[in-house]
């Protein structure tokens, strides 16, 4: 239902041969933020990363190129999704970093799970950090997400940077 509503908004603007309006962009963000996050935090869908061996693969992949391709500020590997606050360095593109994480972890996890096929959803939610306050909010959100989802002793969460921005 969420995917249909999002596609309908984009399709309508496309059929009218116009870019998305500010209200449509905001609606798309709200659809993702509230509905999808509540769905994910409730533990719906495949929860492969509830297994320590799978969560470890993802966490180690996030940490692997920290300081080389990106500055990793905070992360949480949830049972069915991942949150990351990071800053690409120099010419490294967000799309390339995400592809690298998803490709490596999907192959490694699927091998352990003895399965084939999609491991990650094809689309991700990106948020541009606008200032220090926004960065602090994003880091706090990521670090508190396990508790919000009822995972009180969750070990797959971490803070790498203190919230201070670095330039690449």
Descriptive notes:
- The chain is mainly alpha-helical and 168 residues long.
- It has helices at 2-15, 22-41, 52-64, 94-113, 132-148; strands at residues 70-77, 82-88, 157-159.
- A three-stranded antiparallel sheet has the order 2-1-3.
- Helix 1 runs antiparallel to helix 2.
- It is globular and about 50 Å long.
Helical content stands at: 40-55%
Uncertain ranges? none
* Structural class computed from helices and strand pairing: mainly alpha
The total of helices stands at 5
Q: Please trace the helix and strand order, writing H or E for each element.
A: HHHEEHHE
Q: Please state the average pLDDT score.
A: 85
In this structure, how is the largest beta sheet organized?
3 strands, antiparallel
**Terminal Cα span:** 40 Å
Strand fraction equals 5-15%
Name the strands of the widest sheet in spatial order: 2-1-3
> Which outline best applies?
globular
Q: Rg from C-alpha positions? A: 17 Å
- Number of extended strands: 3
Concise synopsis of the structure shown:
Helices cover 50% and strands 11% of the residues. It is mostly helical and 168 residues long. The chain has a three-stranded antiparallel beta sheet.
What's the topology here?
Blueprint: H1 2-15, H2 22-41, H3 52-64, E1 70-77, E2 82-88, H4 94-113, H5 132-148, E3 157-159
Antiparallel strand pairs: 1-2, 1-3
Helix pairs in contact: 1-2, 3-4
Descriptive key words:
11% strand, single chain, 168 residues, mainly alpha, three-stranded antiparallel sheet
């Amino acid at each position: 239902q969420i995917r249909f509503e999002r596609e309908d908004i984009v399709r309508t603007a496309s059929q009218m041969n116009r870019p998305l309006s500010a209200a449509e962009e905001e609606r798309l963000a709200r659809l993702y933020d509230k509905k999808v996050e509540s769905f994910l935090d409730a533990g719906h869908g495949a929860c492969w990363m509830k297994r320590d061996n799978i969560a470890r693969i993802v966490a180690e992949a996030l940490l692997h190129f920290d300081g080389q391709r990106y500055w990793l500020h905070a992360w949480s590997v949830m049972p069915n999704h991942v949150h990351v606050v990071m800053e690409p360095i120099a010419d490294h593109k967000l799309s390339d970093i995400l592809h690298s994480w998803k490709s490596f972890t999907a192959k490694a996890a699927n091998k352990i799970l003895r399965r084939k096929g999609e491991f990650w959803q094809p689309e991700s939610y990106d948020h541009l950090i606008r200032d220090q306050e926004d960065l602090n909010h994003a880091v706090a959100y990521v670090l508190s997400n396990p508790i919000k989802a009822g995972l009180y002793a969750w070990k797959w969460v971490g803070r790498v940077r203190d919230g201070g921005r670095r330039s690449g």
